Amino acid sequence: MSRDIDVLVLGGAGVDTIVHVPELPLPYADSYLIDSGVRTRAGQTGDFVALGLTALGLRTHHLDFLGDDPEGDLVRALHEDRGIALTAVPQPAGTKRAVNLVGPDGRRLSLYDTSRAHPDDRFPLDTLRTLAATSRHAHVSVTHPCAHALPALRETGVTLSTDLHNWDGENPYHEPFAHTADVVLLSTTALADPERTMRHLVERGRAEVVVATAGAEGAYLLADGELTHVPPATPPAPVVDSNGAGDAFAAAFLYGRLAGEPPHRCAEYGAVAGAYACTVPSTEADAIGTADLLARASRRSQSSQRSANRPLL
């Protein structure tokens, strides 16, 4: 069967309203004056992964629920402008949305509106199976109702990845994703023992590779039973917002994996892309391109090699 799609991205379409605040956590006050403005733009986790993959030249298709509302129009416009194929299932409850409070150091606090879904929402099986059967890989967001799509995706034989984000290692909601995917990404933010959680994912699921991103500390890669540290990449400009860094890491990691690169090289790509994403203002949607990614990764590799060859004093 022809594989016309490189990556099918499932779920995670929506809009964010960005509010720059003087500090996080934000002290209680009756009101704050926001000189930078309060701005709404398209782009949640699935949108940003799809954007990153497309910027790296991969044929990408995004499937999710969208409302017939102004927020849905923003999401549709983003995909049309960036040349990302989109299949939007009608959502009467409206398009998913969130509010991101962004501090001066680029950290964020996200408030997700969970009312934009129904418990019985399901992707049309025929649509899901057709898209998956013509895809080389599928990246599944941990948004409703993606968990219900996992069995059908597995039946098609497509390889799967997921990003558990700030999972604490215990919340049962994440387990279907964690135990079904071939590649699992997550953040160390809420993990008491990252290595223990990563090894449990391999033991209990079918993951071949687990990556735990750790912000400014880099990331940790578990592959072939070996845990290694991936140093952070140097951002090419001042850090202004960490929103979307994990999605950029995921997109670049998958780019490397689909190109046949070894896991550590894929993680190096992810580190470079994540650092780049931190330099993009939260009110914009942008991603690193292939030439820039490969050039920065090459310079990073050469620098690491020179350091390894430097004689000890």
Architecture blueprint of SSEs:
Blueprint: E1 5-10, E2 15-20, E3 38-42, H1 45-55, E4 60-66, H2 70-82, E5 85-90, E6 97-102, E7 108-112, H3 125-133, E8 135-140, H4 146-156, E9 159-163, H5 175-180, E10 183-187, H6 194-204, E11 209-213, E12 219-223, E13 226-230, H7 245-258, H8 263-277, H9 290-309
Parallel strand pairs: 1-4, 1-8, 2-6, 4-5, 8-9, 9-10, 10-11
Antiparallel strand pairs: 2-3, 6-7, 11-12, 12-13
InterPro entries: Carboh/pur_kinase_PfkB_CS, PfkB_dom, Ribokinase-like
Organism: Streptomyces phaeoluteigriseus
Domain Carbohydrate kinase PfkB: 192-285
Brief account:
With 313 residues, this protein is an alpha/beta fold. The chain contains nine helices and 13 strands.
| CATH superfamily (homologous) name | Ribokinase
Helix content: 25-40%
Question: How many domains make up the 3D coordinates?
Answer: 1
Overall geometry: globular
Kindly identify the CATH topology: UDP-N-acetylmuramoyl-L-alanine:D-glutamate ligase
Low-confidence stretches: 306-313
In N-to-C order, the SSE pattern is EEEHEHEEEHEHEHEHEEEHHH
Largest pleated sheet: 9 strands, mixed
- Radius of gyration, in angstroms, nearest whole number: 19 Å
| Average pLDDT metric | 92
CATH architecture: 3-Layer(aba) Sandwich
CATH top level assignment: Alpha Beta
- How many helix segments? 9
The tally of strands reads 13
**Spatial separation of the terminal alpha carbons:** 59 Å
| SS-derived structural category | alpha/beta
Strand order of the largest sheet: 5-4-1-8-9-10-11-12-13
What percentage of the residues does DSSP assign to strands (E)? Answer: 15-25%
